[in-house]
User: Which sequence fits this backbone?
């Protein structure tokens, strides 16, 4: 097991109201090379879990362990290794890249600060290689991100995260802000990378169709609790919990006939 | 067959500069040019007296007349421009450095340090800057250098307060969290990610501040705690000529106008940059 999250709880301060508890006793594990989907509606706590996994916030209770490192209390060399091996891609491809850095600086920053390449020339070569790997033109290295589209920016973000060869990539709704056609490209890129680099991916999403394509394992969250977890087949073909069932029922179907039938069935259900 | 004409959207027009903006820009450029190159052209006589020629009204030989020592007022203004603008730039640069440093420490540091620094800033904001500068300058011994130092150590609070707020906002941006996840040091986080994305507004403020600083420096020199005679600094020039207002107005009006024009020009430059950056302010 690469990372284990052991019954963590987290509250946000909501002064003058009492603190709002957004995670209750969440437990989940991430194994090497596996893609795991965290799904749930807005406010279900999925982004909070992602932030805890990245040590951006600390849960009040429970423990997070990554490859022998106590993530919540990590310092010094442990924290450095954690920062090198656990990376993330954000939802917003506009706000998540520093507008005053060139593509080369953005992608090369990890190499620079973790001293993974000794010289600027070697870094530049690695950046170029990485850009090709994610489908960007290395000639664009000296440009700023404002001239790139949302999909290209997300590729830059993925390259920036992956160039230091992390073992876990946490993606917080990485395609929610993209056009549908571009979404598929980015998802396919992530899947490619997962296979090539034996990367574990934690994929936070509210869109089940996307998760179904990418993730072998799925965790369903509701109001800060894990309501169900299992393999893709278990969750999609045989959901046990009513919340999971309603979540699946809400996925839009491309076939209008099927869609109409479903809506009719749901109306009947609510009428009864 | 020819394709039907498709209406092309008009290419986005690059907005030109208005006549007023061009006027202000050229004024500022002219002032800077005068300050940089003017003194090279000045005759040596501006520091030596020629009593026979004192208090002569403006003429072809002495465009702005001569002062009580018979020195050419025009050339003293030109030489004074360098002293005045250089000092003003120095003051703004120094207090900006202090302000930026304190704001960065406050924004990056722990809560208690932030609180402590902001309370000190509050005190700085509450004190009337010019009076305190006057006190400092007088205590250090009246000289232009004292005035510059005094203004530098009293000018930073607004910069520190504004920048600290802006930096806190910038730190909410996802790319800052991204840099943290990547493992950048606190120093790199602040200097490479937060600060460069927070300075825009302040650059506008600093342009405008040059104008105010010119005025305050001239005032300090005028009341005697800044530049001392025979310096050609404008405030000092007005001070030494003020006895002749009724008999030789040009000795006072010329440097007075120089102070007014310079501070207004830089003030307007600040306003113009601000409106250009934020078009919603246009029309005010």
Assistant:
């Amino acid at each position: 097991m690469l990372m284990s999250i052991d019954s963590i709880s987290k509250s946000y301060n909501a002064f003058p109201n009492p603190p709002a508890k957004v995670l209750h006793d969440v437990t989940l594990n991430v194994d090497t090379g596996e893609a795991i989907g965290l799904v749930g509606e807005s406010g279900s706590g999925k982004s909070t879990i992602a932030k805890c996994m990245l040590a951006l916030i600390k849960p009040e209770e429970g423990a997070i362990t990554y490859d022998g490192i106590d993530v919540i209390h990590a310092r010094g060399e442990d924290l450095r290794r954690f920062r090198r091996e656990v990376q993330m891609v954000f939802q917003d491809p506009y706000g998540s890249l520093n507008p005053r850095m060139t593509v080369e600086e953005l992608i090369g920053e990890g190499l620079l600060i973790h001293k993974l390449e000794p010289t600027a020339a070697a870094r530049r070569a690695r950046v170029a290689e990485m850009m090709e790997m994610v489908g960007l033109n290395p000639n664009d290295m000296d440009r700023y991100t404002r001239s790139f589209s949302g999909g290209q920016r997300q590729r830059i973000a993925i390259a920036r995260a992956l160039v230091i060869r992390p073992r876990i990539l946490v993606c917080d709704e990485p395609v929610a802000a993209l056009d549908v056609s571009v979404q598929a490209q980015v998802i396919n890129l992530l899947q490619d990378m997962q296979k090539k680099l034996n990367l574990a991916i934690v994929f936070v999403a509210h869109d089940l169709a996307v998760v179904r394509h990418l993730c072998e394992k799925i965790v369903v969250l509701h109001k800060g609790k894990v309501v169900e977890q299992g393999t893709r087949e278990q969750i999609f073909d045989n959901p046990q919990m009513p919340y999971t069932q309603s979540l699946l029922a809400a996925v839009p179907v491309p076939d209008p006939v099927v869609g109409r039938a479903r809506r009719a069935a749901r109306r009947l259900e609510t009428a009864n | 067959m020819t394709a039907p004409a498709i209406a092309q959207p008009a290419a986005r027009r690059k907005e030109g500069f208005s006549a007023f903006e061009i006027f202000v820009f050229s004024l500022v450029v002219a002032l800077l040019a005068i300050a940089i190159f003017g003194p090279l052209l000045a005759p040596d006589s501006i520091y030596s007296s020629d009593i026979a020629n004192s208090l002569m009204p403006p003429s072809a030989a002495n465009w702005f007349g001569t002062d009580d020592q018979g020195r050419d007022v025009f050339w003293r203004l030109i030489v004074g421009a360098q002293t005045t603008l250089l000092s003003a730039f120095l003051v703004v640069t120094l207090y900006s450095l202090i302000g930026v440093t304190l704001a960065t420490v406050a924004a990056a540091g722990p809560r208690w340090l932030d609180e402590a620094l902001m309370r000190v800033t509050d005190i700085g904001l509450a004190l009337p800057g010019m009076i305190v500068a006057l006190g400092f300058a007088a205590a250090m011994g009246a000289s232009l250098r004292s005035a510059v130092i005094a203004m530098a150590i009293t000018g930073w609070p607004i910069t520190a307060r504004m920048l600290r707020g802006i930096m806190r906002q910038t730190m909410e941006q996802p790319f800052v969290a991204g840099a943290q996840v990547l493992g950048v040091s606190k120093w790199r986080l602040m200097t490479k990610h937060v600060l460069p994305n927070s300075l825009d507004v302040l650059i506008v403020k600093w342009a405008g501040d040059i104008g105010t600083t010119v005025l305050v420096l001239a005032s300090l020199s005028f009341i005697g705690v800044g530049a001392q005679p025979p310096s050609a600094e404008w405030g000092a020039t007005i001070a030494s000529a003020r006895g002749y207002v009724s008999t030789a107005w040009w000795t006072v009006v010329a440097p007075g106008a120089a102070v007014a024009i310079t501070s207004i020009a830089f003030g307007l430059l600040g306003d113009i940059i601000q409106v250009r950056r934020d078009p919603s302010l246009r029309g005010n």
